[in-house]
Amino acid sequence: MIVFLQSVLSGVLIGGVYALVGIGLTIIFGVMRVINFAHGELVMIGMYLTWIIFTGLAIDPFVSILISIPAMFAVGALIQKTLINRVLGALPENQILLTVGLGLVLSNLVMLFFTSDYRILTTSYSSSTLRLAGLSVSTPLAISFAITSAITALLYWFLLKTDTGQGIRATAQDRDAAQLMGINVKRMSLLAFGIGAALAGTAGALISPTYYIFPQVGGVFTLKAFVIVVLGGMGSVLGATLGGVIIGVTESLAAVYISAGMKELFVYVLFLIVLLFRPAGLLGRSRV
Amino acid sequence: MAIRVNDLPRALTRSRRSTLFSFAAVAAVALVLLLVPRAVQSPYLLHVMILFFLAVSMGESWNVIGGYTGQYSLGHAAYFGTGAYTTLMLLQYRHIAPWWGAWAAVGAALVVALVIGSICFRLRGPYFTLASIAVAEIIRLIALNWKPVTNGAEGILLMDIPPLKIGGMLVTDWLSKAPFYYIGLVLALVTLLVNYLVGRSKLGYCFQAIREDQDAAHSLGINPAFYKNVALAISAVFTALTGAFYGLYIGFIDPHTVLGIDLSVEMVLICIIGGIGTNLGPVVGALVLVPLSEALRANLLARLLFSAGLLDETSRAGAFLKENLAHAHVLIYGILVVLVILFMPDGVLGFAKKLLARRSPGRVPSPSPGAVLGGPDANP
Amino acid sequence: MQILEIRHLFKFFGGLAANADVSFSVEKGMIMGLIGPNGSGKTTLFNCITGYYPPSKGEVVFKGQRLHGLQPDRVCKLGMARTWQKVRPLAKLNVLDNVMVGALARTNSLKVARQAAMEQLELVRMAHRAAMLAGGLSIGERNKLEVSRGLATRPELLLLDEVMGGLNPAESDEIIQLILEIKARGFTQIVIEHDMKAIMRISDRIVCLNTGEKLAEGSPQEIVHNPDVITAYLGDAQVA
Hints:
The complex is a heterotrimer. Chain A contains eleven helices and two strands. By secondary structure, chain A is an all-alpha fold. In chain A, strand 1 and strand 2 form a beta hairpin. In chain A, helix 6 crosses helix 8 and helix 10 packs across helix 11. Chain A is globular. In chain B, the strands form two sheets. Chain B has a two-stranded antiparallel ribbon with strand order 1-4. Chain B has a two-stranded antiparallel sheet with strand order 2-3. In chain B, helix 3 runs antiparallel to helix 4, helix 7 runs antiparallel to helix 10 and helix 13 packs antiparallel against helix 16. Chain B has a domain of 234 residues. Chain B is globular and about 65 Å long. Chain C is an alpha/beta fold. Chain C folds into two domains: 163 residues, P-loop containing nucleotide triphosphate hydrolases (Rossmann fold), CATH 3.40.50; 67 residues. Chain C has ten helices and ten strands. In chain C, helix 3 crosses helix 4, helix 3 packs parallel to helix 5 and helix 4 packs across helix 5. Chains in contact: A-B, B-C. At the B-C interface, helix 1, helix 8 and helix 9 of B face helix 2, helix 3, helix 4 and helix 5 of C.
């Protein structure tokens, strides 16, 4: 029983980080109807950014998000402006291929400059644990969950309470109508991709103390982000939050009870099951 | 023939003449290619040609489902890997000759295609693409973790291939390139022929109707699920054969090289660079990609920069490029995808056609005034 | 002789009834007009008849056979063809190939299909466009392409969904002539149309839907004088 609770707890904690990745993807999809196949690579860039800041400037990974959030926002906005914007009206297949290509470019550029060696970011607290109601929790995971929750709360507030946030939601709901209502749709798209990239980068920063850092790490995150987003319903932020936690717990349980090597397999199987039986997601209404 | 040729509009007969021409051109090229190993002694050149045939076969196989039927599978490594693993495992562990093993590979790929098709074809568009990636990843993870059967991440290193008797000829020398050259050439021609035949049959019409508008096709008596599965089966069979050929030629396979997503992307890339949905597109794509990646491997680009005096070989940047550019072919693939999608979404062939049309506008029927309201570009 | 009978057909989307208790029958060889204000459930009814939606309740009987659960391709093979309100040309195929796709529902031979397709194109006077990409056609031509593609599947019943939408008077007139010509060849047709004058001219009988229910049925004369229809259409019909 302890083992079960233990793995559920660590699943929830890592699920919070997954949720960030998923929320970013879902916001981009919502506003532009573009599925960003390079999303995991943005997580990867976030990880390397954190690693550089840590090894070069000796800034703690959790503090470094103050630098990486604006930096990743800029990267996202740049990608939107130079690439995504040009294919908004193109065939969805071409949009997919463009972002797939972008992902290849990002991961291989990083490989070019940093080689494909695995990097580890070791902090003083990397392997320390906290005791919590009889369960032990990895300290970096606990901190990252706290930060994740704060950021998610902030994001909800932004989307629900600010004019800009409502503009993004309106654009996601109906792009044409939003445009007619005088919302600057182009600016919303730029913001959406920027926020999506910033969230992905933050997730990368938050997991960097506990994950191996290597150029190909993004692929797994792209697929996980899809699973999360499809699970929660394409375009739903609340759904992505929930989806992230579900994936985190599934993975953690599969790793403990079945095999660590097979945990991703279960994520994909879950993904297919959801695609087939709840294509609109767990929370979403069914779309014709 | 029921309709006399001069009943048909002139543009139609013209397109017929041009296919006849390209048919003759392909035949002539094939004939020349058949003679190459007699004239060329360089194993490296033959190796590059074999890689070219592999790329053509991969692209042409993908084209049946992706190009003709419009189902953008990004999980075709699943069939490639299934073909390679089945053939090599049978040869290595059961001593079954690959020309029999290849049939088993075809069977296995059909089973995989049937399973994938029944799951993924309930989904459309990007959802199908996502599902195809997920299924391919599942298969890769199984191959990685099912060590007793697949030898896991270590992969399979092929020991030797038994002699093959064709007619009166006995092929024993599997270390030389020539036998693989001929097999590769035949495979490439067969996949090209398959595409041609699909295009000239009811199947091709049904596939393309589904690609253009699945609902409209459905109302015209086409069962989309059935025809998509047929397209996938054809595509999977030839992808698996290509995979088997690859495994035998290279002599080593592991889950990453024959089941990874990079490979799936490469198949799509070959088609999109040449022009998706055209028979010769994958050939053009292979003509661009294979020499390019070989040039990178041989560090031609860096050498070119040095010899042109643009870069000093001993400088830091020079040393960096010299060391790393050789491994950067996937990076170049990525850049190519992005550039092609942005600047020539119809591939090299489509781009060339557009250029030709611009030069002699009379050759193409001019669009009617109504086309302004919603041409093919305006309403994808 | 009845070719199609719709019995107490309901179609719900969520809690919303897009069709509610619709019943009528169509005689062989006639043109049945289907009218109603926007959102009255005409296209939904077409989708139920042709197999795109399974009806929530009730049934569709075609040539004595219940269609329940049959997919659109089976319905087509049974002898029913349709056009789409928002036209669906196979944009990257040429016009002849578009019609050939329809003809291939009845044959496996490309040669036979090509000839049948040319005949259909001549019927709609589009033979000169055979080699052109369907995506490049004008709206009027696209509508005619839809009709000829449907006819190429050799249907007994043809369902036309606003084939005069967006056309100028001359083009509409051409389509009206075409519909009458198709009738003369013995086909049965159900025609959804907004243009009241046109529908009065061509229909033998008219069904009027309103908010998913059948409001009235009768000859064009009866319909045009039916007070309920006039109320439902006030504005819409008068202008047209």
